[in-house]
Amino acid sequence: MANTFQLEILASDRPFYVGAAEQLVFPTVDGLMGILPGHESMVTIVSPGELKYLVDGEWHYAAISEGFAEVRRDYVLVLGDAIELPEEIDAKRAAEAAERAKERLLHKQSIMQYYHSQAALNRAMNRLKISKRHNHEI
């Protein structure tokens, strides 16, 4: 097997992936973070977006919401509030959630409600983008 590290990707409701990985790429507030075996230790916030990891030469993709990652030289732990494979995403439901969030943004609301509506819209749009990118039949 190629040079790998132990990867654990855990969603709030289930273990998503546990095993060896060759590379990992995930979104942060500063942009995409790439991890290779031997990476310097760190802890960082994971932003909503596309997470991808390389196992046995094949890339695997997922939509991830907010979370954080702990990186060590030979081990990476990614915790996400919600993590979904592209084929698990209900595109119709995500589109409906985006429309509801857009509608809420048009109404007068407190700053906290605005941020919640904006976050809901971002999550829905992220799910739609990943679903469309990786499910060619949609």
TrEMBL record:
The answer on whether this UniProt entry bears the keyword Ion transport reads: yes
Q: Alphabetically list the UniProt keywords.
A: ATP synthesis, Cell membrane, CF(1), Hydrogen ion transport, Ion transport, Membrane, Transport
The superkingdom of the source organism is Bacteria
Alphabetical list of Pfam families matching this protein: ATP-synt_DE (PF00401), ATP-synt_DE_N (PF02823)
Keyword Membrane present in the record's keywords: the answer is: yes
Q: Which GO terms describe its cellular component?
A: plasma membrane; proton-transporting ATP synthase complex
What's the main place this protein lives?
membrane
Q: How does it sit in the membrane?
A: Peripheral membrane protein
| Limits of the ATP synthase F1 complex delta/epsilon subunit N-terminal domain | 5-82
Ranges where the ATP synthase epsilon subunit C-terminal domain occurs: 87-132
A molecular function (GO) held by this record is:
proton-transporting ATP synthase activity, rotational mechanism
Q: Which residues form the signal peptide?
A: none
Compartments, as annotated in UniProt: Cell membrane
Family to which this protein belongs: Belongs to the ATPase epsilon chain family.
Describe the task this protein carries out: Produces ATP from ADP in the presence of a proton gradient across the membrane.
Q: How does it assemble?
A: F-type ATPases have 2 components, CF(1) - the catalytic core - and CF(0) - the membrane proton channel. CF(1) has five subunits: alpha(3), beta(3), gamma(1), delta(1), epsilon(1). CF(0) has three main subunits: a, b and c.
Q: What is this protein called?
A: ATP synthase epsilon chain
Task: Quote the gene name from the UniProt entry.
Answer: atpC
